[in-house]
Every structure is written in C-alpha cells, then in structure tokens.
C-alpha cells in the first residue's frame, strides 16, 4: 500500500535535482570597487593626451568593502614645452570639460569629472592654452581581441582560487576587486584582490591572452 507514496517521493526528488544543478554562480562583479574600462590616446607636436574611462567607489579605500561607484573620465596632458600653462580640455562631442590642474609630482596636467556614459573607439578632444588651441582625435587602445574587465576578473579569480576561498565566509566574499586596463607598448590588465585588512594580491595579465604575467603580495 505504501508503494505509490515512495514512487511519488522518488519522482519529486528527480524533479528537484535539475533545479539544484541550475544554481547561479556567485557574482564576484558585485565586489568591484574600481574598473578602468578603456584608455584613449592622442599626440601632437605640443603634447600627449590620455583619457581614461573609470568606474570608482566613493569613498575610495583599500578596506575590502565595496561602496557605490560613479563613472569618471580622467584626462592627463603631458606638454612638450613645460613653460606653457593654463590648459583647458573639452570633449567636443558633449558638454564636458574644464580647467586642468598641474600635478608637480607627476609633472603633467590633470582634469576629471563625472559622466553618464563612456565614448567608444574614438573621441574628439579640444585643448586650449595660453596663446593656442587645437582639436585632436583620441583613439581607444582596445581592439577586437581585448578582453573585458569582467573576463580579466574571472581569470584572476580562477588563478587565485585559494586566495578567494580564504576571503569567503558563509558563501559570501569578504573582499573587493580592482581591475584596470593598462598600456605599456601593449595592453595589460591589473587585477587587485583586496582583503579587509588591506592585504592585496596583485596580478598582471595580458589583455588579449589572459596569461598571468606577474604576481605580487603586499600588506
């Protein structure tokens, strides 16, 4: 008389098994506190310009806690003639720009501001200074083979499985990540895995191959 009950229970169990196998993987992108998604470069006889597209938390701290991020465009101008001053930058495709500030340590001019979206492939930049003005086209360093920041993050997580596991408690990750696209003749990704103590595991990846080229730990 109990056979129908056991048959029904077995059928229910079989129906539940596929559901258990469909559990969503943990979303580590929720712990990204900084992402440098793209870099645009331009050069003239007077200066070089680098425009970076960044998403960054506020407040910005190496504490393992991910705060809400805002979108920023950062412009760095390195002049050939260091005696020229008073640079102003404007993105001519939109209402964005302002007066640049000189950074004595880096020996360049800098401007940043919030934005609602990032440019793609290329962007027109107008630069003014004392006695001059020019408009240049800055182009993205990315190509069709460049990984996304999220892909670089996943490679780092796979490579540092034990590091990530040590920062996980009750199925929750207790750290933060920073992913930055870099340019040094070729493209790279920096990925930082930061613990609440501030201890950081840093990886340098090839931006196209995903190969881990260097690893460093810092307190």
Biggest sheet character: 13 strands, mixed
Structural class: alpha+beta
Note the gap between the termini. 67 Å
Summed up, the helix count is 3
Stretches where pLDDT is under 50 for at least 5 consecutive residues are 1-20
Radius of gyration: 24 Å
Instruction: Summarize the amount of helix as a percent range.
Output: 10-25%
Q: Quote the average pLDDT.
A: 90
Q: SSE order, as H and E?
A: HEEEEEEEEEHHEEEEEE
Q: What fraction of the residues are assigned to beta strands by DSSP?
A: over 45%
Topology, number of strands: 15
**What is the global morphology?**
elongated
Describe this structure as you would to a colleague.
This protein is of the alpha+beta class. It is 16% helix and 48% strand. The protein is built from three helices and 15 strands. The strands form two sheets. Strands 1, 2, 3, 4, 5, 6, 7, 8, 9, 12, 13, 14 and 15 form a 13-stranded mixed β-sheet that branches. The longest helix has 19 residues, at 3-21. The N and C termini lie far apart (67 Å).
Keyphrases for this structure?
219 residues; alpha+beta; 13-stranded mixed beta sheet
Report a brief summary of the structure.
The chain has helices spanning 3-21, 149-159, 161-166, and strands at residues 32-43, 47-57, 69-79, 88-91, 96-99, 101-103, 108-114, 122-129, 132-140, 168-169, 172-173, 176-184, 186-194, 200-206, 212-218.
Task: Outline the fold blueprint.
Elements: H1 3-21, E1 32-43, E2 47-57, E3 69-79, E4 88-91, E5 96-99, E6 101-103, E7 108-114, E8 122-129, E9 132-140, H2 149-159, H3 161-166, E10 168-169, E11 172-173, E12 176-184, E13 186-194, E14 200-206, E15 212-218
Parallel strand pairs: 1-12
Antiparallel strand pairs: 1-2, 1-9, 2-3, 3-7, 4-5, 4-8, 6-7, 8-9, 10-11, 12-13, 13-14, 14-15
């Amino acid at each position: 008389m109990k056979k129908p009950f056991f048959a029904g229970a077995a059928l229910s169990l079989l129906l539940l098994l596929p559901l258990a196998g469909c559990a969503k993987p943990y979303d580590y992108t929720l712990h990204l506190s900084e992402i440098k998604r793209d870099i645009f470069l331009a050069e003239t006889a007077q200066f070089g310009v680098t425009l970076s597209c960044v998403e960054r938390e506020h407040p910005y701290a190496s504490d393992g806690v991910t705060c809400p991020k805002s979108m920023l465009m950062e412009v760095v101008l390195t002049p050939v003639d260091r005696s020229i001053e008073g640079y102003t930058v404007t993105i001519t495709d939109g209402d964005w720009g302002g007066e640049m500030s000189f950074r004595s340590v880096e020996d360049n001019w800098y401007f940043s501001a919030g934005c609602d979206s990032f440019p793609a492939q290329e962007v027109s930049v107008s630069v003014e200074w004392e006695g001059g003005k020019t408009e240049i086209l800055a182009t993205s360093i990315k190509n069709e083979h460049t990984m996304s920041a999220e892909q670089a993050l996943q490679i780092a997580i796979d490579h540092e499985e034990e590091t990530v596991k040590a920062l996980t408690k009750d199925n929750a990750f207790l750290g933060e990540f920073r992913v930055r696209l870099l340019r040094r003749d070729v493209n790279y990704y920096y990925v930082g895995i930061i613990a609440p103590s501030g201890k950081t595991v840093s990886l340098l990846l090839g931006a196209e191959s995903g190969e881990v080229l260097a690893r460093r730990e810092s307190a």
